């Protein structure tokens, strides 16, 4: 029997496994595909909520902790795996911000650098932006990370740890529960017994818990993105060198000169197909910010599923009514943003350590009660509940 089984091999699941293994515990990480190939791969990698002043304090607290952790986390992964996650701290330019006063007031309260800047400053930073920009906001401390490489580095680190078993290409078919306690999971390769089970299933987390009679209000929200290959520019510069955000869409530069545009917001259940309409919309947004992108090759166009929870606040902690079952899900657009903080918060609880972050705003029992979910539904479950038929092709 292993100490912990983690369901879901995204950034949240992998960081959780890493921390538990380094604390001396045995961990089995179960992933239906390959680790880091769902929402963690599909996102943009900005290490901040897009408009941080529009979020609640619980999200801001996690974001502040995680932003502090990312530089050293990326450096450590590069050293230990040889894979560079490409953490870049080049700042972010906000264009056409309607609630500028609210943004500046938030920055003062948080002690965060956020400056009002004029056209000369903006074009000095990014000379190939569209003409006619009069002013904007500049956050010089903002960083970004190349999330596919972060996922590769985390997976490589886990594979090097003797206490971790990666169960990839494995479907979870049921949760083992006896007399109100979790006993492990049933998978397509057989039973995995465990003392504790942690659900990090992203957009699929609600479906998984529905199989034991619990309604977790986490739903999938599709986001489509594209990647451009850009040519060298005069003076040895790249076409774009820092993140630019306008009208809810963002451009993110990569270290090799590529530029990413994101993202759509679509209520499409578990459908991850890309569409011509989204392609046209993303291209129009990209060209409106950086006109030269209209003539650049689109290398990739993809979609991912964000796990949306009410108010964008994730569920982190023990599942009420089932001893030994825990959840860390519902981060919406900020899974990668909050991962170092939300995983540390849960691991602190699992290991009985004092946490630097107050766990109460994220506790599933409190948040579910606020949404009318009675914990007694869970307490009556005392069997392994099959769920593969509920998930069908979306899970397999």
TrEMBL record:
Pfam families: DAO (PF01266). Pathway: Cofactor biosynthesis; thiamine diphosphate biosynthesis. Gene3D superfamilies: D-Amino Acid Oxidase, subunit A, domain 2, FAD/NAD(P)-binding domain. The keyword Oxidoreductase applies. GO terms for molecular function: glycine oxidase activity. Its EC number is 1.4.3.19. InterPro entries: FAD-dep_OxRdtase (IPR006076), FAD/NAD-bd_sf (IPR036188), Gly_oxidase_ThiO (IPR012727). It is an enzyme of class 1 (oxidoreductase). The keyword Oxidoreductase applies. Keywords: Oxidoreductase, Thiamine biosynthesis. NCBIfam families: thiamin_ThiO. This is Glycine oxidase ThiO. It comes from Halomonas kalidii.
